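Dear colleague,

Thank you for sharing your sequence with our group. We've completed the structure prediction you requested, and as agreed, I am returning the results in plain text so they can be pasted directly into your records. Please verify that the sequence below matches your submission; if there's any discrepancy, let me know and we will rerun it promptly.
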Amino acid sequence: MYIKGKMRRFTASLLCLCLSLGGCGSAGQASFSTEDSPELASAVSTGISGDEADSNAEPKAEKPTDPADVSAERVNDVKRTTEAPESTQTGTGTATSGTNGTRGSTKTSASGNNGGGSGGNSSGYTSPDSGSSGYSGYSGGSGSTGGSGGYTGGGQGEAVITARTTAASGKGGSTRTTAVSGTEQASVTTAAPVTTEPVLPENPTPQELLDSMTLRQKVYQMFICDLETIACTGTVTSVTGEVRNTMENYPVGGVILFAKNLQSRDQTMQLLADLQECSYTGLFTAVDEEGGTVARCAQKLGTAAFENMAVYGEENNSETARYIGETIGNDLNALGFNLDFAPVADVNIDPGNELGSRIFSSDPGVVANMAANVAMGLQSSGVCATLKHFPGLGAENGNTHTDSFVVIDRTIDELRENEFVPFSVGINAGVDFIMVGHQITTGFGDDLPADLSYTAVTEYLRGELGFGGIVVTDSHQMNTIASVYGAADSAVMAVEAGVDIILMPYNLTEAADAVIQAVESGEIPESRIDESVFRILDQKYRLGLF
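Please find the predicted structure tokens below.
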């Protein structure tokens, strides 16, 4: 752990001194059969060190600051420009008539564009901030000068082409042809584009892509955001120019959609396809589709619907669980989703918990069998599954969406006997993601929400349970995080704890900037960022996103 992280944890501990911790009774021993699920038999036999639980990213908590202020600040961030150095090229040739330039590639601003325009002065379109999708210049009118060729005007400043000159390629662009009047020498002055996208080798491996990225690009991969946070506007149902520009200039690792973003199947498919076009690494496209009461697509788009998971837990049939996962996964995959924040792997210990019938059972063995099979069904359909909400919300008597603190009084031994069990089985079965909740569990001894706790994430989830996949937080817009820690501190603490992806930061730029500054100051080693981003890129590579 790092010094500043310790100070944050000490501060958080002081905040918790006034809390009265309610004890929770120990659950019974786990008992379950693997007869219905031969493929999980080996996972169970490798050793179950405890029970695990996971939580759902539901919007949205009370906010510590005025959203209008935040939106204005982030819009200003998007519109910010800086100067870039100029470059000059010369050439001679025969006069021809050029054509209007066309929009640059959304994949890489280094690509040359068609036609620089003919005659007169042509000016490049100024892209905001880092110009990830530059536009070529437009014709100043046909005449005795001009030329094809293309240049990229993206980035800061504008590219000006003098009369009777060639429209040569911008920095990194591909020169098509050059043509100027007679044999006169002509000069082209362009503003060198500044791009948020790396220059990639052909068909890069995850490591090659990682090696090509800047610190800022890597840090933004560690965030999954809702579309409204990205757009700074009302409900988003399509990729507007504003959404596209923000996605390109703030290259997050993924997006999460809610029911309000879904209007029809065709609209959802188009939205997700257009979002993917905004990212050079590909995006995790996530949704909460558990079945039962939490089923965005079933409720809005008419995909397959299921009962609450407690109904199937009573049956404890692994084939049924696998069918549920495969069916939901096939529906999500067809729409363009590749990540489901499901299934719930909590054990129902305290009837006052916030999850209720979303939980399969009070028996950790039943939860382990059903959750692991749902997860494997999802993943067999090309959709990443997520066990949630580690280390377990089932013994909670509160609500992390609305309460400032949720404390669960459980010893490590109690966790091993109950809550850790489903997570251990799911890990051994090969689950892709585990979501860590915001509950403070007394057995960890640090008085921190689990997703900000090095003890919970690195020592127990990574260490004792051996999870090597992607660790994602529950939503950081929930009250237990947003009202107590804020966007900056919570993001830094989560990374220090060992988290790979922060879900739905209350303020994206504030959170990302804080992590970048922590790396630049030496508080967080850049190798720690590389560790998480490699996991992210490796999973995207296996999904075929780049």
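Summary note from our side: The first helix runs from residue 3 to 15.

Kind regards,
the structure core
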